[in-house]
Amino acid sequence: MSPADRTGPAARAGDGGGDWGAGFRESRRPPQKYWEGVRNLCRRYGALLIFDEIIEGFGRDREDVRKRTLSDAGHPGPRQDARRGIVPLAGIVTGRSTTTAETAPSVTTPTKRNALAAAAGLAAIEVIEKENLCAHAAHLGAHAMERLHEMADRHPMIGCVMGIGLHIGIDLVRDRQTKERAVREAEMIMFKCMEKGLAFKTIDGNVITLRPALVITREEMDWALNVLDEAIGEVGGNRSDR
Predict the structure, then answer these.
(1) CB atoms within 10 A of CB 103
(2) Alpha carbons 140 and 137: distance in angstroms, whole number
(3) Are residues 167 and 225 in the same domain?
(4) What total number of domains does the chain contain?
(5) Cβ neighbours of residue 137 closer than 8 Å, sequence gap 6 or more
(6) Cα(151)–Cα(157) distance, rounded to whole angstroms?
(7) How far apart are CA 204 and CA 239, in angstroms?
(8) Low-confidence residues of the chain, pLDDT below 50?
C-alpha cells in the first residue's frame, strides 16, 4: 500500500468499512509517519501489521547490520524477513502477544532448523560487514537518487522518486497534477530496457523498482540509469493519450 493509496485495509478500517484481520507491508519506503499511522490503526482495531521484506534484505537500506532491529519505530509489529542468495533463508519474528504457543519452535518456516541455510546466512552477513557493503549502498544510492532527480526535471512522466540506499522507486504518472498512474507507459519502458539488457520489476503497475545487488559498481549503476533515462525519453516523447 503506497502513501497515496487510501483504499487499503487500514483506510477501510479507519472509515468504519468492516472487519479485517491484518495489514501487509511489502518493501516500500513511504514517509515513516505513514507507517506509524497504519500501526496505530492496526492497534486500534486489533489487527496484525505484517512486514514482508524478502527483497529488502540486510544492507540494502544502508543501515549497519548490527544496528538494525526488528521492532524499531520504523518497523512496528510482527515482521517477516528473508535473506536471499543462492540458498534461501526466511524467518518470522513476533511478540508474545501474537504467538499461538508458548515456544518459538512452534512457528513453522520453509527452512526450519536448516543448518545449511543458517550457515549461508551467517556467511552473507560476514561478507556484508567485511566488504562494508552498507556504506557502499548508502554512497551509491545517494548517487543514483541525485541522477534520478535530475532525470525527473527532464521527464514529466516521473512523478516522484523515493529511496534509501539501494532501495529505490520511480513513480511514473501520466499527469503530475492528477497523478494518474502511467501503467501502460511503465510496461513499455520495462520492455525497452529489457531489450537493452536491463531488468527490473514494477509495483502497482507504474512504480519502477531499482534494487540491485549490493556489490553493484558505480559504472554499472550509471549504465542502468542511462538505459532507463533513454527508455523513459523514448516512451514519453512518443506517448499517445488516446
Answers:
(1) 7
(2) 5
(3) yes
(4) 2
(5) 59, 60, 61, 62, 165, 166, 214
(6) 10
(7) 20
(8) 1-17, 27, 65-85, 240-242
Give one DSSP letter per residue of the chain, joined into a string. Answer: --TT--SSHHHHHHTT-----EEEE-S----HHHHHHHHHHHHHHT-EEEEEETTT-TTTTS--GGG--SSSTTS-S-EEEEE-SSS-EEEEE--GGG-SSSSGGGS--TTTT-HHHHHHHHHHHHHHHHTTHHHHHHHHHHHHHHHHHHHHHH-TTEEEEEEETTEEEEEEEEETTTTEE-HHHHHHHHHHHHHTT---EEETTTEEEE---TT--HHHHHHHHHHHHHHHHHHHHT----
In a domain, 223, yes or no: yes
The CATH number for 58's domain is 3.40.640.10
Contact 63, 125 (CB under 8 A): no
> Same structural domain for residues 81 and 156?
no
Residue 4 within a domain: no
pLDDT in tens, 209-219: 999 988 999 99
Domain containing residue 108: 9-130
**pTM higher than 0.85 for the full model?**
no
Q: Are residues 98 and 119 in the same domain?
A: yes
105 shares its domain with 172: no
> Per-residue pLDDT tens for 76-89?
333 333 344 467 77
Domain end among 130, 149, 180: 130
For residues 63 and 26, membership in a common domain is answered with yes
